[in-house]
Specification:
Layout lengths: L1 E4 L2 E4 L3 H14 L3 E6 L1 H9 L1 H9 L2 E4 L2 H9 L10 H15 L3 E5 L4 H12 L5 E5 L6 H11 L3 E5 L4 H9 L7 E4 L3 H6 L7 H6 L2 H8 L4 H4 L1 H12 L3
Parallel strand pairs: 3-4, 3-8, 5-6, 5-7, 7-8
Antiparallel strand pairs: 1-2
Helix pairs in contact: 1-5, 2-3, 2-13, 4-13
């Protein structure tokens, strides 16, 4: 099910519901792009038609950000569970390990995808990561050939948004995988190069507050949230 938040589609399912959809798609070989939706992206999409199209053309849009949950409450919608990009990746990896579905990791600095692979193999014994490729290979044909030779069902791309989603859309018709997710800095988190907020902040949905305390320069970006909620409230009065 989808809900519209300021013109952007967002899935209403929680992690369990999304796992059913993703792995059903793998069985049907029905390709899908997973994108993370947060208030900052929605506000940018209002001003950028190409970004709006990219987000809405994706098959699965996860509600990554407490602001999206609050927006859904304001418009009496059905989005009740936050689904973060990194946790979506981890849940997909966990489920793929149980079902022996092969995975490929593409992106990041040299060595980071390998470190992420090693961490995932520790977290999910039996996981089948059939290949990695750093994001510094200039020849796209080489990247595509390596992915297709490995024949993964799931491809995680770590390039930052929207570059990673644009790369996926430009290449997925010629690639073997069924499920594609842009995962930003998730490889660095797995590799231990970047620390996530402590569990308390994650569970409370206020990782943004932890990051703001660590990086006060993010304040301008975080101001998108109150503006976003005001826009949502206005749109529901019309």
């Amino acid at each position: 099910m989808k809900e519209i938040v300021l013109g952007v589609k967002v899935n209403t399912e929680d992690y369990d519901g999304l796992m059913v959809e993703v792995f059903d798609r793998i069985e049907r070989k029905d390709k899908a792009l997973v994108v993370a939706i947060n208030p900052e992206k929605i506000m940018k999409a209002k001003e950028d038609p190409s970004l709006m199209k990219l987000l809405n053309d994706a098959e699965i849009q996860i509600p990554d950000g407490i602001g999206v949950i609050l927006a859904s409450k304001l418009q009496k919608g059905n989005i009740t569970s936050r689904v973060t990009g990194v946790d979506m990746m981890l849940r997909l990896c966990e489920e793929a390990a149980k079902r022996n579905k092969p995975i490929f990791l593409y992106g990041g600095k040299p060595g980071v995808a390998e470190q992420a692979k090693a961490k995932l193999e520790t977290l999910y014994p039996g996981i089948n990561i059939v290949g990695t490729q750093d994001g510094y290979e200039k020849n796209n044909d080489v990247v595509r050939a390596k992915i297709n030779e490995a024949k993964p069902d799931l491809l995680f791309v770590a390039m930052g948004s929207p570059r990673q989603e644009n790369w996926i859309n430009d290449n997925r018709d010629t690639l073997h995988p069924t499920i594609y997710q842009g995962v930003g800095g998730s490889f660095d988190v797995l590799a231990g190069n970047v620390k996530r907020a402590p569990a308390f902040y994650q569970k409370a949905g206020i990782e943004w507050l932890y990051r703001l305390m660590k990086e006060p320069s993010r304040l301008k970006r975080q101001m998108a949230l109150p503006k976003f909620l005001i826009e949502v409230a206005k749109s529901n009065k019309k």
